[in-house]
Specification:
By secondary structure, the chain is mainly beta. Helices cover 7% and strands 34% of the residues. It folds into two domains: 44 residues, no CATH class; 192 residues, Jelly Rolls, CATH 2.60.120. The strands form three sheets. Strands 1, 2, 3, 4, 6, 9 and 11 form a seven-stranded mixed β-sheet that branches. A four-stranded antiparallel β-sheet has the order 5-10-7-8, with no helix packed on it. It starts with a helix and ends with a strand.
Length: 243
Amino acid sequence: MKKILLYTLLLLFAFIEAKSQVCIGGTILFKEDFGGNLVEDPDHSTMAIPECGFVFKADGDPRGAGNYAIRKEGWYHGNWWTHMDDHTYPNDKTRGYLMQVDASATPGQFFKRQIDDLCAGVSLYFSVWAANSINQAYENQFQKASLSFVIEDINGNVLLTENTGLMPGTTNDNDWNQYGATFTVPLGQSSIIFKILNNGNSSSGNDLVLDDIEVRLCVPPTSVIISPNDTVCKNQTVTLEGQ
């Protein structure tokens, strides 16, 4: 008898159902952590982000309106910038790159990615871990950072726009927040373009860090029925029905 098989299957699908409600356990279609995951990697990257609309600083210094750098830790810019840890490896400034931006007053594109081979009707969750670089003690003296998530079809037609609102000042090196948006792929679409944009309107402040950008497939709740009964014997043919 293989009753253990049925029990294992039920546990598996119960896990999928529980996780999919908030899409935490959804299948990852794409993830960008910016690399630098080895201790021996340099403290900053010399590789720019494709299609980023800001100026890449290969020397690792992101200061200056409209500049960004890819670093293992936030730049120490006096007391008003929090010295952030990488989100992927909290409390470890030897591994993992983050993207630090000294954004300008002009809206611009931080990140862009095309996701292909999608099925109409599926739900996707787009997310990023982000934080205001400005320390909370100084947040009222500077413009707070703000992001927009934009989903487009491949012809540039906007399908969804979501804003994060103003990000609060940070209080410690791991004061990250996750921001996200859920999107259902419409009929006739198999590819979409995901963008993260600067939504701030000032170069005084408007400084932020980004990490662990993800696109997840939100799997709907699933149950499994084994016909004709719940007992499976060796070499027996069974039918699995998904509902």
